[in-house]
Each structure stands twice: as structure tokens, then as C-alpha cells.
Amino acid sequence: MTVLPPELVEQVVDTVSGIRAVDYTSDISRFHRIQASPGIHDAIMYVKSQAEALPGVAVTVHEYRAEGQGAIGTWEELYTWKPRSGILQLLEPARKTLADFETEPISLAAQSRSADITTEVVYVGKGVSDSDYDGKDVGSKLVLTESRASLVHKIACIEHGAAGVLTYVQPSGTDEIAGMRRYEALWPEPGEGEKAKLGFALRQADGLKIKQWLQEGKTVRVHARVDADLEPGPFELLSAVIPGKDTSREVWLMAHVCHPHPGANDNASGAGAILEVLRAISRLISSGKIDMPDNSIRFFWVPEWHGTIKLIEHDRDLVSRCRALINVDMVGGDPAKTGSVLGLHRTPYSLPTTLNNVVEYWLSAERERKREPALGGTICPLPFEYRVYEGGSDHFLFTDSNVRVPAVMVLQWPDKFYHTSVDTTDKIDPQQMAYVARSLVLSVLSFTMPMLVSKEELMTLCKKEIVELIERVGLKAVHQLSRCTDDPEKLYPRYMRWLTYASELGRHTLDRMQEEWHLISEQKSLLQAMRASVEMAYTSEMVILRKAYEGACVEVGLQAKDEGQIRLDPMAFDVHVRRKAKHAMIPSHISKSSKERQARYLPLTQDDPFFMSRVDELLNLSQEWKSLNEIWERLCFEFGDFDPKTLSMLVKDLEELGIIETREV
């Protein structure tokens, strides 16, 4: 049994082409696609020409401005960047061309401005604090750093008078690529365009050699010449829509089309994948193999984040039509070459939806499909994982509690070539692209042709996910209590709460099942049975938890208390919080606000992969006044434990920045 009829699935499989998806990806990767630049305009025009050639597709260019002034919430306006040339030549102690925009566009840091200088290089280490510049004369010189140019440019150039920034990738000890350059950008703040300097991304080997020369006391002189403008200008998004019977309701596929040449997996692959989905669905409809969908299907190619926030702010009527969104970001890499695993990042727990289960079902089912040898490509398995919510791409602007559009992300991670000059098309695989494109077509058709969907199987998938979550929480509780990893009087009430959160998520997801799908009376009866099944799993795990608690009490010599005697909600925090921000917060906002905060938060974001996900969910959970203690418990339940002192610091800083407000209780 499948969620959609088998004959429809086979028609989709027969229509989707992994080779065509790879071709689209290769074509898009030819452009140097920096946000608000001529290169991304050219890429959008290419996609537009391909979409307009398809039957039954209406295409729109959404035009905005990048003025370099003002902001939408925490999202500062970008400048339009028009690069024409840029070259960096080593003059002393050797002669060599270190970077050339004409041959490697990624070698010139985005937002670099025109300059023609001959000067020395000074090594500043990380270059992110004033102490890195103590005793160093960097005025009118280029600084060499292993940090990102965006972190160093302001302090080095605007505050200490450096003429520009040279960056390189610090060796990590594994998978070193001597010729690799990192994607760099200066990202000047609004009003600072005239103060922006220049930057170049060096190959790792060249950066290390220059550092060695400087540490040996040698003088390193270079000539840098850049011809580029940073000014107000146009800012574009592209959408293509296949109209449905009801045009007031839409399902969206979105991919950011930006990033430097080549940027094959990130994210020409996502842009190429959804273009192939558009071609396949258009062909299925025009050939009469499927009917017009009940709801419209809209495809978006956007400049990441900054294009999406403009769409949300300025096209609210269009956004209000969206009932579900799939964000496609890095999906085409050969796992054997990139070391990547394809993941589906579900919605945050604060936004339950059956969209998670539909997309997970198709990605799991199509992964097992027998390969077509004639397609070529990788022979290794195509790994897939269902993952918790993570921001980091355009979908998190929609899952924000002020928008509340169910949105998931399909993403390959990790990718050892991410944001570098070696993210090239030779790593893009037709088997991987076909697998992802098929899964996306089937997911979209499930939502836009709901009468063909097996609601019984779908609600079973929803129930299964929640029962497994409840059982995982119960298993973790038993493990910790049986090993007495902490005071049983602390562990028992905590896991009682977590089991309640899991059960609550199940109830709300099944409630969404009834809201998102039309159910007949028999299906409503089955849905009620599913609710009972979740409640039974919850009750069973609570009984097991109680017995594990009693055993732990015996182990440590305590008298087990009745539930009525246990304090279920100890006040770790004595405040309530409520958000003030109208939009999701850009991840860099806290660290950019001051050098002190940057020093505190950069290590946190590096050490905790879920740190920004916790920030997103903190804002989602504080739409109305809520106990910070409950928020902390829910964040631990969703993303794992973290230090409550970190949350206290975060709340204090967010309040000072005007993102949230607090009140004592």
C-alpha cells in the first residue's frame, strides 16, 4: 500500500529525469550568483527562460530594491554589488598571481569596492578583537586572517584603517585541499557602503605560505586592483506557478539560487531540482496523465534570506495562500564524494503538521527504489535521515510564530566542499538528483491532489512517529534512572514533563490531520483510534517511568514519593518572556551587536549545532507571556540539554536588543 495510487507513482518515476536535473544544475552553476548582483540576475533569467517554455506555467519576476539603507526587523538592507574585475598579485618575497576574479570569481570577496593599491600584508590571527591588533600597524595595509572576512572587515578596515582583508582556510587535520578557497563576503552594514574596502579569498596553501613568511620576519608585498561598485539597485525573486482548481490555496517549493560560482551543490542543485519538478509536473498535466491539481503549486527561486524576508514583508497576500512549503537546499551531491547524508528537517515542535510525515514517507520510500543502470551515477547507497528542526535557510522565516506556515527543509549535510571553490558540478550525481526530484513531485502531488491520498496510511505514519518519540523519551528516562545519573527526585518529574510534551505533540499533530485533510466519518473514527493509541503509549511509558523511579529511589536510599508530593515545576527561572520582534531574527544579529557579544556567542554557535534552532524556538514559544522555565524544558526536550545559564544570558541580551521583553514572577 502507498500513500498515492501505484500507477500514479510509476508515471512520476517515468517522467522525472535525474540527467535533466543535473543539466539544470550545471547551467545554473555557471553564474556567479551573489545576492543583488548581475550574476544572480542572469541566473534568474536563465531559470525564467526554462520555466516559460513549459506548458501551463505562469512566471513572475518579483522586483524589489537593495538600497543599502534601513532594515526589515533585524534584516539589514543589502547593497547591489557590480564586480567587473579583481586581481591580487604577490610582489615580494616571490612573484605570483594569488587571485583573479576573471578566472575564479569566488576569489574576490563579495561587496569589495574599487581600489588600486600596492602595500604590505600583516597577519592578525583571528582578527576579531582589538587585542589581535595590539602592536601591529595595519593602516593602509592588507590583513591576513583565518577568520571569515565578514567578521574581520569592520574591525580591521573601518576601525583600524586597513585597506582590505585576505582570508584562508585554517587546516583542520583532515581532508585538506591545498587549492581550496572559501566563499567570502564583507556584508557592510546599512550606511557603511562608502567605507567598505576589499577582500580576497586565498588558496589554503598560499595563505599558509604567507603566514609562514610573516612569522619568519619577511616582508610580504602585494598589488591589489579591484573594479567594482557597491550601490543601490534592483533585487529580484522568481516564481512559477501551475494553477490549481482553487487558486487561493498553494503549496510551495523554494530554493535559494544565490551563492558564488561554482556553488554546485549549494545551491544550484536545489534550484535545478525544483526546476525539474516543475518540468515533470507540467508534463504530467499537459500529457493528460494527471488532472489539474486541486490547489496551485508555486515554485520560488530566491536570494537566500534577504529575498525571502522581502517577500514576506511586501507580498503578504501571496504568502497567505501558502498552506505548506518545502525548502530545497543542497540535495545533489554524490554521497561517496561529499560525505553527505540527505536529511529532512521537520518543523519545530511548536508547529505540528502532517507535512513532516508526507515528505518523510516519500523520501524513505523512493530511497529504496531499484536503480536505473542507464542513468549512470553513484552505485553507493543514498543515505537519508529524518531530523529535528534546524534553521539556517529560508524555511525558518515561514515557521516563525508570526507567519506559521508549515515548512520543512531537505538538506544534504555535512558537505566537505560547502562554501568553497571546489563545490563543483563533478560532485553532482544523477541518481541522487532523480531520487530527490521524484520524492518532491510525489510530496507536492500528495498535498495538491488530496482525494488520491490514503488518509488511513498517512494518519498511521503520524501516530507511528509520535509513539516512537514517546518510547525514545521513556528509554532515555529508564537509562538515566537505572544508572542513577542524577537525583531521582529531579529526573522523575523532568521525564514526566517530557512524556507529556511528546504526547501533546502527538495530539496536536493528529488534530492537524483533521484540519489539513478532508476526512469522511469512517476516517474520523480511525483518527480517534489513533489518538487513543498515542494515549495508551503515553500511559504505558508513565507506568514504566514510575517503576524506574521507585527502583532508583531504592538504589540511593530514598523513599519514593507519590505524584502529588512531587514538585513538578521547580522554578529555575523567575521570569516570564514575550517576544516583541515581528519577524524571525537573522542569526548574526546577536553577535554583530557588539564585540563582547561576538566573543561570547561565536563559540556557542560553533560548539552547539542547535544553538540558533533554540533561539528560533525560544521566539516561537514566547508569542504570548510564557514561563522561561517551561521554555527551557521544551528546548531541552526538542534539542537536548544545555546550560540554563546560557539561556539566562541569551534572554538578557535579547531583551537589551529589543527582541523580547521579560517580567518577574
Q: How many structural domains can be distinguished in the coordinates?
A: 4
> Strand arrangement, largest sheet?
1-11-13-12-14-17-15-16
- What gap, in angstroms, lies between the N and C termini? 54 Å
What can be said about the biggest beta sheet?
8 strands, mixed
CATH secondary-structure class of the largest domain = Alpha Beta
Task: Round the Cα radius of gyration to an integer and report it.
Answer: 27 Å
3D shape: globular
What's the CATH superfamily of the largest domain, by name? Zn peptidases
Tell me the number of helical segments per DSSP (H or I, 4 or more residues long): 20
Low-confidence stretches: none
Residues in β-strands, percent = 15-25%
For this structure, the CATH topology of the largest domain is Aminopeptidase
Kindly state the number of beta strands: 20
User: How much helical structure, as a percent, in the residues?
Assistant: 40-55%
Characterise this structure.
This protein has 665 residues and is an alpha/beta fold. It has four domains: 7-76 and 234-451, Zn peptidases (Aminopeptidase, 3-Layer(aba) Sandwich), CATH 3.40.630; 81-229, 3-Layer(bba) Sandwich (Glucose Oxidase, domain 1), CATH 3.50.30.30; 454-565, Topoisomerase I, Chain A, domain 4; 575-664, no CATH class. It contains 20 helices and 20 strands. The chain has helices at residues 6-15, 18-29, 38-52, 149-159, 204-215, 264-286, 306-314, 316-320, 335-338, 355-367, 396-399, 430-448, 455-482, 488-516, 521-556, 589-592, 595-607, 611-621, 628-639, 644-656; strands at 58-66, 71-72, 75-76, 80-92, 96-100, 115-123, 142-145, 164-167, 198-201, 221-231, 233-242, 246-256, 295-302, 322-329, 341-345, 384-387, 407-413, 575-579, 626-627, 660-664. The strands form four sheets. The chain has an eight-stranded mixed beta sheet, with helices on both faces. Helix 2 crosses helix 6 (264-286) and helix 14 runs antiparallel to helix 15. The longest helix is centred in the last third of the chain and has 36 residues, at 521-556. The radius of gyration is 27 Å and the shape is globular.
